Amino acid sequence: MTQRLAGRTALVTGSSRGIGRAIAQRLAAEGAAVVVTARSTSPSRSVRDGREHVLEGTLDETVELIERAGGRAVAIAADLEDPVQRAGLVDAAVDAVGGVDILVNNAGFADYSSIESMEEGTFDRTLEHYLKVPFLLSQAVIPGMRKAGGGWIVNIGSSTGLPPIRPFREYNKTSGDVIYAAAKAALHRFTQGLAAEVEGDNIAVNVVGPSTAIMTPGAAALLPEGYEAEPVEYLAQTVLEMCTLPATERTGLVAFSLHFPWSQGIAVTSLDGGRELPRLEPPAWANPNIAADGLEA
């Protein structure tokens, strides 16, 4: 392990399972003290299409995994849909680990539905999670980052935020991902605009999204049976790369997790940093609007 983040602190939202947990593990393996946060310390219950799903994974389990690997993590439960809990999260993280050098906006809500049948509440929740929450948490961390001389904000994007492949695939006609995708597209543009605003403060702001999709507990109910998902380690590594260079060298990017390491020749390691993984070429069926260098075309 290179300990590239030794002495740094990080706040990773939605880190009780899946992508958020993997990112927290990877940052901790590089020496960061990580605050992991989710709605509660117990398994989450999510209602989709009128049916309740119990999603495995807890904050305590994430902390245990990090500590077992020799890292440091602190769990703070906060419901990001609750204005009071949301408003106090950054201050609680600062109290726990002394600051926030890295913010990863990963937490989300996805309930796919066609435009015609989607409930207004689902629309509102989707936009709140993927645009309003990153806006508010970014607002909250910027003053401390500026005072500290810099920092990194990474927003988790999606290739669905890019224009769909033409001619339209059956997925685009039937998946019901339009509002989710529109929110992710807005998050990409938010990131690029914020990057311009805070570059002079040495705060780097970037997007990292899966080149295809990652089979997380939350995504399993949304992806079609037999879908060829990508390993989460490649996304976690790409997030790490966005937290290591000053804003003058790397900011305002929309990067994708298989394309970016492949094109840049970046070694991808296991989540504990102890083992190098094989180079993994992006599949030919990935969205062609992802450029060869792994960025948004």
TrEMBL record:
Pfam families associated with the record: adh_short
Chief place of localization: secreted
Keyword terms of this UniProt record: Cell wall, Secreted
Source organism superkingdom: Bacteria
Catalytic activity annotation: a (3R)-hydroxyacyl-[ACP] + NADP(+) = a 3-oxoacyl-[ACP] + NADPH + H(+)
Domain Ketoreductase per the UniProt entry, residue ranges: 8-211
Location(s), subcellular: Secreted, Cell wall
Coiled-coil boundaries: none
SMART domains: PKS_KR
Recorded family membership: Belongs to the short-chain dehydrogenases/reductases (SDR) family.
Protein name as catalogued: 3-oxoacyl-[acyl-carrier-protein] reductase MabA
